[in-house]
Design brief:
10 strands; 212 residues; Glutaredoxin; 31% helix; alpha+beta
């Protein structure tokens, strides 16, 4: 199965570091960051999960839950978490799915045979409260993810869900945003963008971030 943006993320029930877990029940009405890693007790993954744990306050502020996955066993996950907490000086407050039968990996297309026949690549999905897939990023096995970028994208998605705006390249929370081309009526422009806007080109109009 290949997931695409706008698809509904499939539900699953699988063992994890916190016991058997039903994905939809666990997610509730939160945003979710679901990410896979190749294997437990590996160096890059250890740093990634430590960073994710340290970012919990930032995820909480955005109403986001994090959940990791590998094809190792629940027992291995629990032992590995001890190493993560020791070496990364944090507390892992999120579950790790134990996808030993690779059923979840196959649902989310996390195994890329030209990279490895047996382990998951570094796939990451941002899923909204309606269980819709909003972002997919896949990294090679050797490259750790940039979680600052994940937070930035979540900020952009939540902003554009609430307001009729788009975000420019390298946008960060607080920067000016772009008015979509679909908004043309002068009264609608005045109503939706009371802070005003600058027309750089007829197709490029920028306005202050509306919720700041």
């Amino acid at each position: 199965m290949t997931l695409r943006l706008g698809d509904v993320a499939p539900n699953f029930t699988q063992e994890s570091s916190i016991g058997k877990l039903n994905f939809y029940d666990w997610a509730g009405d939160s945003w979710v960051v679901l990410f896979s890693h190749p294997a437990d007790f590996t160096p890059v993954c250890t740093t990634e999960l430590g960073l994710t744990a340290k970012l919990k306050p930032e995820f909480d502020r955005r109403h986001v839950k994090a959940i990791a996955l590998s094809v190792d066993s629940p027992e291995q996950h629990v032992e590995w978490i001890k190493d993560i907490e020791e070496t990364q000086h944090t507390v892992v407050g999120f579950p790790i799915i134990a996808d030993q039968d690779k059923s979840v990996s196959e649902l989310f297309d996390m195994i890329h045979p030209n990279q490895s026949q047996t382990v998951t690549v570094r796939s990451l999905f941002i899923i909204d409260p309606k269980k819709v897939v909003r972002l997919i990023i896949t990294y090679p096995l050797s490259t750790g993810r940039n979680f600052d970028e994940i937070l930035r994208v979540i900020d952009a998605l939540q902003l554009t869900d609430g307001y009729t705006v788009a975000t420019p390249g390298n946008w960060k929370d607080g920067d000016d945003v772009i008015i979509p081309l679909s908004v043309k009526d002068p009264e609608e422009l005045q109503r939706k963008y009371p802070k005003g806007f600058k027309e750089v080109k007829t197709y490029l109009r920028v306005t202050p971030q509306p919720n700041k």
